[in-house]
Amino acid sequence: MTDWISAEVKKVIKWNNSLFTLIINAPISLFIAGQFTKLSLKINNKSIQRAYSYVNAPNNKNLEFYLVLIKNGIFSPYLYQMKKGDKIFISKHAKGSFIINNIPHCDNLWMLSTGTAIGPYLSILQDKKNMDRFKKIILVHAVRYYEDLSYLSLMKKIEQQYKNKLHIKIVTSREKINNTLFGRIPELIKNKKLENAIQLPIDNTNSHVMICGNPQMVYDTKKVLEHEKNMIINLKNRLGHITTERYW
Fold first, then answer.
1. Tens-digit pLDDT profile for residues 60-85
2. Domain coverage including residue 55
3. Which residues cross the membrane (predicted)?
């Protein structure tokens, strides 16, 4: 049973017509970077809830969520219209195993994301805990259009904090932009354009790949890594090279 507590909206940032950030305050229990929680509203006398990953680091009292506005949705339009001071319910305890402590030892950690699934990676990278065990961290953020890069400035700031350890590569699928890759992540791995751009190999001897995004991207990328790189899924009872999180 979900342990709901009341939260207060601090801010809603509308990046464009479909992407927005919800920032709230609530006395939640401490979560682990990479985990998700549930938000709930009573709509038409019915409690509606959805799961969202934290964007903020666990030590930040401003609880931040990066969301997509689904025009005919039954939940996100209400979040999109919220104002400072509005109330919403949040689960006191977070869930999820998409965390750094579950990643086996490796030299190169690849973080692959599409759209709003950049959220858990931003939480992990801002938290910084246990990141010193990786020699290189590669954050790949795939979006349709360049204007969908809502957190690009934060990503660049984080990249500077990690100095030469963190490499960020942007991928767009609907328009070609200078200094970005064009296409879909699975194909960019298969044709080696992603590895060539970073100048690091994805292999099963010194790499681990975290995948977070829409179900099709997660499935296709996992299959490419299994077939092309001889990688296997990381499980509790068997160490592997791939850790996944489907974002809906």
1. 999 999 999 999 999 999 999 999 99
2. 4-91
3. 20-41
